[in-house]
Amino acid sequence: GKSISKDNVMNAWMGPNGADRDFVLDDQWYEIKAIATGKDRVTISSLNQLETNLKGHLVITYIDDSSKTDIHAFSVAGLVAEFRDVLNDAPEANRIFEEKLVSVGYFDKSAYEEIYFTVGNTDYYYINDTFPRLITETVPTEIVGVKYDLSIVGIESWKVGEDNLWN
């Protein structure tokens, strides 16, 4: 796919800043949800989360609790260490990553070495005008906050392959 610099990726990572969407690049955005395998719904946590004129994708990754005896499992601390390693040659991206870790309350502590999980499939859904979503102009003005669940089976027809993400 298209190559994006490490600095751009870290700058695009909006989630920890309290933004509506997790990653925002120049011409598209990605809202990433991690849910347990077998769950049949995904929660959209605000009216603005899927509201934009830019093309975007909802990315659902399936994650399950695990233990350190599982060779496929990651610890939270291990994942952070891996990211630090990847960003080693990109000081600006590294700085942004560390700031954002702090902003989400992550500190290097032994508890994070004990939390293990496995990552399963990742599914991608294209958010267009027909995608089922609540947006400001479609709800009464008196409703000022919304959190809703989408049926994963229900949004199946918006599913796209990973190769569609960068086009």
Describe this structure in words.
The termini are close together. The chain has 3 helices and 8 strands. The chain is globular and about 45 Å long. The longest helix is centred in the middle third of the chain and has 13 residues, at 91-103. The chain has 167 residues and is of the alpha+beta class. Residues 10-21 have low confidence and may be disordered. The chain has helices at 6-12, 76-86, 91-103; strands at 23-24, 28-35, 41-44, 55-66, 74-75, 116-127, 148-151, 159-160. The strands form 2 sheets. Strands 1, 2, 4, 5, 6 and 8 form a 6-stranded mixed beta sheet that branches. Strands 3-7 form a two-stranded antiparallel sheet.
Break the fold down into its secondary structure elements and pairings.
Elements: H1 6-12, E1 23-24, E2 28-35, E3 41-44, E4 55-66, E5 74-75, H2 76-86, H3 91-103, E6 116-127, E7 148-151, E8 159-160
Helix pairs in contact: 1-3
